[in-house]
Structure formats: structure tokens, C-alpha cells
Amino acid sequence: MVIGVPKEIKTLENRVGLTPAHCADLVKLGHKLLVETKAGEGSGFLDEEYQNAGVSICQAEDVYSGADLVVKVKEPLEKEYSLIKKGQTIFTYFHFASSRQLTEAMIKSGAVCISYETVEKSDRSLPLLVPMSEVAGRMAVQKGANYLEKHNQGRGILLGGVPGVKPANVVIIGAGIVGTNAAKMAAGLGANVTIMDINVARLRYLEDIMPANVYTLYSSQSNVNEAVKTADLIIGAILVPGAKAPILISRDMLKTMKPGTVLVDVAVDQGGCIETCKPTTHENPTYVVDGIVHYCVANMPGAVPFTSTLALTNVTYPYVCQIASKGWQKACRENEELKKGLNVVNGQIVYKKISEAFELPYSEVEHHLS
């Protein structure tokens, strides 16, 4: 199979879909690799390394026109829509439920869209989302601590405090991978941490393993309302796989917060769990609403691309091998995890939560696997 790896064009997105080492392995398996020039440069991988792995270096148009399978990191942007061919397989993060424009563009393209974020194991874990969620959870605390500084319009608070001065209050809404990693980081820096979720079993588990400065709290709306009033840093870490995130912090709630409080919405890829959330970039990461600092970068792990690329490709590579060796239909028939990653196939939505998000027609995935 011909596999293409384009350069990511999202603002300051420096990750890449495959490393030279993975490309070399795919070449050994008999596949042909087309990698866009400078695709790996942001992650520290030079064109020369890809060429030494047996890859053909070319322009974006040649990657898309020549590839049967395109392996990316982020969703295609508008200028890429016309490059995608009918019947071509695109394997990347899509987050369709947050963008009707993207959804309709991929329907129109006739491509086969397999989304990293909905590939799901039998235990309901999301193997291709986990490593980036780990990175984003840890980064959320780093960024939050930075924007709490006064020159960044924050409250002027040191996250861990000092002897004689209380540490910051950190509230994390969502106790999944993002929330757990954020709690570990915030606790390690000495903050007072409250982590909230509606899964009591998960809260009980975290109560056992987390340090003494992490407290668990059931995520009822009244508890959220009260918790944000005394928070210095609030991290939205909600995930509903394949669907739009629910709004848990309304604009009216901002008026109850202390001026200079920092909001980090890691759920921004899925529409955000904060009503005033809008996607930002690493170039212009924050904005202020009612005196509250919002950090809503939609590709947080892109800021640490060497770590993120390695963490991501370690888990995507086995699935790339399956698709490349068997074709998408056979690979999805034989691997239930990969089948759940199918979102749009040949002009039809095959993932129910996406059709529900936009009230668009839904087609059973089984109809497309024969």
C-alpha cells in the first residue's frame, strides 16, 4: 500500500503522523511511503532521516494524490479538503462532533475517515487518545500555573504557595486520563486539588492513590457552582467519546469567580465544557471574559512535539500496519477496536453520535464492511 504523511498545517502544530523509524519498518513490510518535505522537522526528524528510511520526500499535493492511506495527527483543514480523494483512507484525530464544516467536507470527499479518538478497546478505554490525554493533562497544570502570574493577567498566585502562605486552589472537572494526570501534576507542585466526577467508583479509586492534598468531590451542578467560587485554576477535563462535551461552566458562573482566575478547557477539541470557550492557538493562547483568563488551545500536545509524536506513534503504528497490510475493510472486520474508529465512510456517517450532533443521516457501519 502507498502511505502518505503530510505536514501538519494547524497553527504551531509540530507533531507528525509517523517517525522515520516507523516508516523504515513499513518499507521493510513492502509498503511505499510518501512524506511531505519538512513534515517531521518540528518534532526533530529531518527529511534526510526519512530518506534514509526509504521514504520518498515530496510536496503535499503529491502525498495526497499518491497515497491510499494518509496518516496525520490533526483533522484536515479547509485548504486540505480538496486534496482528499474519494475512497482514500484518512487516519487521524477528527473530533467531528465539534465541527459541522469538517463533517460535511469529509462526507463530500467520499473518503474513509478513521478517527483516533473513537478507536476503543473492549474495556471502553481509548488507546489512541490516552497518550495525548496524559500530555494534555500535565500541560494543563503547567499552562495554568504560568497564566496565574500577574503579567499574564492572572491572580498573581504561586501554585504551591510558600511557608506561611496558602497554596492555590485547583479544581479539575473530570477524573479520566486528563483529569488524573492534571491532579498528579498540581498535587506535585503543592496545590490544594479538588477533582470532580460523576463516577463514584473512579473517585473512590483516586481517593486511595492520590496524595493527601487531592480531594474528591461528586460532580453535581451545585457542587461545581460552589467549587469554582474559591478556585484559582479550573481545568475542564470532560470527555464523551465521539460526542460534543456538555457545558458545565456557564457564562453567568464567571461572575462568581475571583478576578484573574484561570480556566483551561482541555475539552475544547470536542466543543469545550465551558460556555465561553472558543478554540485558540499556541500563537494566541488566551483571552479574558469578565476578568477570567481562558486558555483554550485545541492542540496542546503540539507544544511538546518530540514527546507527543513519540507517545502518539507508539500506539497508532500497530493500527497503521493493520490497515496498510489488510486494507481498511478487512482490518476493521477483524479488529473491533479499529472498527469503532470508523466515523465517515464513502459519503455516509457511520458513528451515531456524529449524526446525532448535526441531525444528519446515519448508516450502519456493517453495511460498509462487506
UniProtKB/TrEMBL annotation:
The catalysed reaction is:
L-alanine + NAD(+) + H2O = pyruvate + NH4(+) + NADH + H(+)
Positions of NAD(+) binding:
S133, D197, R202, S219, I238, L239, V266, A267, V268, D269, V297, A298, N299, M300
PROSITE patterns of this UniProt entry? ALADH_PNT_2
Q: Which residues form the Alanine dehydrogenase/pyridine nucleotide transhydrogenase NAD(H)-binding domain?
A: 148-296
Enzyme class per UniProt: oxidoreductase
Q: Which GO terms describe its biological process?
A: L-alanine catabolic process
A single GO cellular-component term on record? plasma membrane
The protein's matches in Pfam families, at most eight in alphabetical order, are given as: AlaDh_PNT_C, AlaDh_PNT_N
Q: Which residues bind substrate?
A: R15, K74
Species this protein is from: Sporocytophaga myxococcoides
Q: Name the chain's protein.
A: Alanine dehydrogenase
Alanine dehydrogenase/pyridine nucleotide transhydrogenase N-terminal domain location: 4-136
**Which UniProt keywords are given for this protein, alphabetically ordered?**
NAD, Nucleotide-binding, Oxidoreductase
What family is reported? Belongs to the AlaDH/PNT family.
EC nos: 1.4.1.1
> Which sites are catalytic?
H95 (proton donor/acceptor), D269 (proton donor/acceptor)
Gene3D superfamilies this protein is in? Answer: NAD(P)-binding Rossmann-like Domain
Stored InterPro entries: Ala_DH (IPR008141), Ala_DH/PNT_CS2 (IPR008143), AlaDH/PNT_N (IPR007886), AlaDH/PNT_NAD(H)-bd (IPR007698), NAD(P)-bd_dom_sf (IPR036291)
Task: Output one GO MF annotation.
Answer: alanine dehydrogenase activity
